[in-house]
Design goal:
Elements lengths: L2 E3 L23 H21 L1 H7 L4 H9 L18 H14 L1 H6 L1 H10 L4 H12 L4 E4 L14 E5 L2 E8 L10 E8 L5 E7 L5 E5 L13 E9 L4 E4 L6 H30 L16 H31 L8 H29 L16 H11 L4 H14 L25
Parallel strand pairs: 2-5, 3-5
Antiparallel strand pairs: 1-7, 3-4, 4-8, 5-6, 6-9, 7-8
Helix pairs in contact: 1-4, 4-8, 4-9, 6-8, 8-9, 8-10, 8-11, 9-10, 10-11, 10-12
Length: 433
Amino acid sequence: MTTTTSAQHSGPQPDVPQPYAPQHSTATGEARYEELAARFRPVFQRIADGALAREADRTLPFAQVGWLRDAGFTTLRVPARFGGNPVSHEHLFRLVTELAEADSNVSHLLRSHFSFVETAALQSAEFQDRWFPRIAAGQIFGNAATERSGNALGTTRTRLHQEEGQWFLTGEKFYTTGSIFADWVVVMASTEGLEGRQYALVRADDPRVTIVDDWDGFGQPLTGTGTARFDRVPVESGDILQRKVTSTLEPAFFQLFLLAVLAGIGRAARRDAVNLVQARIRTFNTGSGGLFRDDPQIQEHVGVLASKVYTAEAVVTAAARDLDAAVDPALALSPEAAFLRAELAVDQAHVSVPPLVLAATSELFDVAGASAVGKDKALDRHWRNARTVATHNPALFKARSVGDYLINSTTPTGLNSIGDATARPSSTTGGTP
């Protein structure tokens, strides 16, 4: 199924949505988290109730994104001076995990939105004054960074050019996760004569913007991932940002979001494993002959599966705490030290979390018989979704980076771009990565 949008989205896209009125709280720590979770769990449950049917019918979750917007979920990191009641990294990623348990597609598609909120916080006061009120009012941001092929590493084929003082954006992107649900798209582009890459912010409902839901991956099918085309879209000069590769927490934040989604998929697999065992009446002639729920081996299997999910979630939470520590004024870390703390934490989490969740989503089937593979249950979606999320950044590169730091004190460095390689390593035994 392919969904195309141009001037109009399929779901509600108000120009200026009514802002959520934040409720400021004096609670801290776990009490603060429970307040937040209690506020959003009813919305998460509504989202979970239709998740299986949406995946079966490939129904994009426009309404569900709207519920989260209306509840104020998309404003969670807006600074207080713009009317927000910002949450910590730990609390945000724990909520993302709970949302991913309800529907990993919905959680994943908001990754670009929350990443833009982090990016905006690093910009000038003028930029923040322009964009944070829009985020606080409920507007949502998508991304368009990656191109299928043909762009050299560090460049894009999507271009910004100027005519008589007006900037225009032209190009085509893929993997535009979340943009079909968004009010704005953050587009990576190149400008002739200007070094590096730029970000251009354009309205998603501009008639010169076309967003196509043509993602054909076997997992995460409802994230709105697909093609976006920009046909001489006008861009305000103040809505163009220079893309800089600096020692910030942006890369770590972007990657930890995926791991939180993975942890949520693990929670969904644990939930369904428990439900299967509790409801099962039929048994095997090779088993104990009793109910599965009373069988010690089945109990042990569910316990092992649950322990893997617990570990994955604990690793995500620990990494999120490292992000909080990196920006804690009381620690006063230098930008370089803050970057290192966050990056190493997330790199190690990236090595640890995917195998745990992939194992749990596979072992889910061992708590029942052949009926567990029925299409009506769609239990395979947990493994497919986890496998798809886990491919976004191959863990072996993260493991190498951690090892190189521990052995040689080499600061982890990412290319922060995707494109065609320009050269091969100098030999089969090494070379410059």
